[in-house]
Hints:
The chain is 78% helix and 0% strand. The protein has helices at 3-7, 12-33, 42-59, 64-95, 98-107, 115-151, 162-193, 200-219, 222-228. The N and C termini lie far apart (78 Å).
Amino acid sequence: MTWIDRALLFSPLDFAAIALLLGAWQWIGWRIENPSPNKLSVALMMDNYRRDWMREMVTRQPRMFDAQVVGAMRQGSTFFASTTMIAIGGGLALLGNTEQLAGVASDLAIGSAPALVWEIKILVVVLLLANAFLKYVWAHRLFGYCAVLMASVPNDPEDAQAYPRAAQAAEICVTAARSFNRALRVTYFALASLAWILGPIALMLSAAITFGVLYRREFASQSRSILLKQIPNTES
């Protein structure tokens, strides 16, 4: 069977649905990381708080609290990487048993299709999860680099290297968080792609809902409103 024969197993609506899914994933990621100056995303605002955190760390003694925060972020990336790996294993197991999946789909009146069609649909999910897994692993490593840089910040705030090292740690932390957030977005759209099993219309709806949820959380959520609030200066 040639690649043309394989492509003919899918309708134009299927191609439109997968294009919508991938386009929504790429666009929302770009928009979150490159927002309008008048409407910053939550992710970008949190980057500024991370930089403030590292500046405050210079004069905080002891710095056990800062180490605990970085440790918690590493644990989060480890948890999601492990969970994603389990999901990838489940997807690969399904790839070897698509006949049973096709039988279940037929019993549920979802539709009848060759095993290859189900394999490709599951493969899309697996590939998205693999992308997320690699980003989680990279985020975990970057948080480790951040911990090392934080440990290298001199205890004396008057040291010439104190604030430059803290700034380096902040930028590594920002990069790690960006990788982690990208991995989360891929995971969301990987879950959305499961709707393709129900058909292209279901995939379109799932992609649109996922896009809407991500947009609301970044640009119209209550947490964003809280981050935008200016805390009055009570110092005399």
